[in-house]
Amino acid sequence: MRNFFTDIIPLYRCFPKKNIVYKIGLKINCACLLFFLATTINGQSGTDTSILDISKVSTVETISQSVFYTTYKKNSLPDSNITRLDISEKIPDAFRQKIPLPTVGKNIYLKFPLYNSADSPVKVFFFPGIYCKKMTLFKTSAGDPQKISQATENLPGSFASITLQPKEKALFYLKLDFILTTVNSLWPRVIKTDFIPYFRTNLLSNKTTVNLFNYLTAGILLMMIFYSLAVYLQSYTVEFIYYSVYAFCMAVLLFLKSYLFGAPTSFNYFFEGYFDFIIQMTGYYFYLLFFRKFLNTKQDHPFLEKVFVISSWCIVVSILAFTVLYYMTAEFGVINLIENITKQMLLLASLIFIFYGLKKKDMLMNYLVTGQLSSLFFSVVSFLLLINAIQLSKTAGSLLNDSLLYYQIGLVLELIFFMAGLSYKNKRDLIERIKERERLKLENERKEFEKQVAILEAKQQERNRISADMHDELGSGVTAIRLMSEIVKAKMKESTLPEIEKISQSANDLLNKMNTIIWTMVSSNDSVESLVAYIRAYAVEFFENTPIECYFNMPSSIISHDLSGEKRRNIFLSVKEALNNVLKHSHASRVTIGIIADDKLIIEITDNGVGINVDNVRKFGNGLQNMKKRINSIAGELRIENHEGTKMIFELEL
């Protein structure tokens, strides 16, 4: 038709208007024109099946067979010249899934006829495809196909209304302006007005499985945010704040991808064309910060630190360049080139990290490398699907061809291996903390032991000093008093005063008690052998000038056991009290002292006296009470038995 108007009609304009040839030719031309229009636009009355009869549209009809398209540089063609375009190409089936990248960023022009065979006006809606930001509909005049009128203003959204009068046929031109993204689709359809809500629902149903997976992944990422914040509040390690920001960006990206899919809103156009890339790159920026802190690359892996720092700066530069070009130019090729270069740079950084990590014998890094390897593989698959380099399924709309699905699979696998690595790191850190705590505990115990040893040594030194002073100073003085009292007694002979005898006896008792105290204080006597020897010597001397015979039963050798001065003193004083009771109250002629020293120290004092009434011990009750208190104070035991005399048993764990 364009050739007819542009080539035939200008020939007759060369003749003068009053020329008879001009008039005859003009009439013939008009007749031919009317016949042409009758057989093309207004005269196909049901015989041409390529023209859609909108009165017979009950729900939705695809008009791909009667729609032709072409592309032109954005906003460079005046609307009045649309009919001069060669719009003669059929829309490829691939456009239903995704508009090729060379086409994105250009104006797409469509041409299609419609017919209304009804006797009343019919209104339908035209749907070009997903993410058409703006479209302008033109309608040709039946009298002059070169003359077009704008049927609609620049419409935001995805639907344009078309109304045809009864029996009207018309040729329409449509100017489309898609957003600058790789997920546009061109699939022209005519929809009945009442069916639009169902059409929207059906449009989203193809994405139901992917959307559910998106929501599931976003939920997992949300849990990771809470987990990271909980870990941060426990340990105040800033890398988990970085990871929570990364997880938040990825969760928002996936959620909005599903929630806003196909929505003809200005925010969705802004998100799909610009903001999704910004969110993704911001997430990766904080992900790199997390890796730098988590692996301590600045100190432990300087090479990786340089790679991550360079990658971080590249992300910042790409965000700035992407923003400037998005708002300053409509050249999608340049914008898409920046996006692809940035992703390839991150891909290279990921490969470097993987090869570097494989060389390290570090279990934590191996977990992270495995996660990165999984993410890298599925990201490559997603990228190839995004740029139409591969198709995993020949079925239109197949889930296997959805690039976002593979990106999510890689993301989930990366999360799984990250959690495994984090669990390993926590376990390793816990073991290190336990080891450090045990080391500090042992160090504190060692210091405390050394402190106690020093205190004991100081006490022993002080005891030895006091015992030496008592022996040298007090002992010599008491001995002198005893000797002088004996000398006085010898000089006075039979006229000795009783007080002199008491002085001599008191001096002798005091000297014995002082010797006992000195013996208990000297640290070199802190053993069972020393106690047994001292008791034996004391008992023999105590009963030497008495009518009681003293017998001693003890092993030939005694196993060496340490025994503190306090225990030695309490045991000896208890034994001394028992021997004193035997002498004063038992009326015995023989006493036997038996000693057993292995795991326990057992001292048995047995006499052949009158025995003791355990229920009535008033006459020497204080002595028994004192012995029990002394033995109990050193965690020992005292038992008294009556069997042909009295048996007193002292028992102490060694």
Outline the structure in words.
This protein has 654 residues and is α+β, with helices and mostly antiparallel strands. It contains 15 helices and 17 strands. It has helices at residues 2-12, 20-40, 196-205, 208-235, 239-259, 266-294, 297-300, 302-328, 332-359, 363-386, 403-492, 498-521, 528-542, 565-585, 621-633; strands at residues 52-53, 60-62, 68-72, 89-90, 107-115, 122-127, 132-140, 148-150, 155-156, 160-164, 169-178, 189-192, 549-553, 590-597, 600-607, 637-642, 646-653. The strands form three sheets. Strands 1, 3, 4, 5, 7, 8, 9 and 11 form an eight-stranded mixed sheet that branches. It is rod-shaped.
Mean pLDDT comes to 81
- Shape call: rod-shaped
- Percent strand: 5-15%
Total beta strand runs: 17
User: What is the first-to-last residue Cα distance?
Assistant: 121 Å
User: What is the share of helical residues?
Assistant: 55-70%
Low-confidence stretches: 1-48
Largest sheet: 8 strands, mixed
Over all CA atoms, what is the radius of gyration? 55 Å
Structural class: alpha+beta
Put simply, the count of helices is: 15
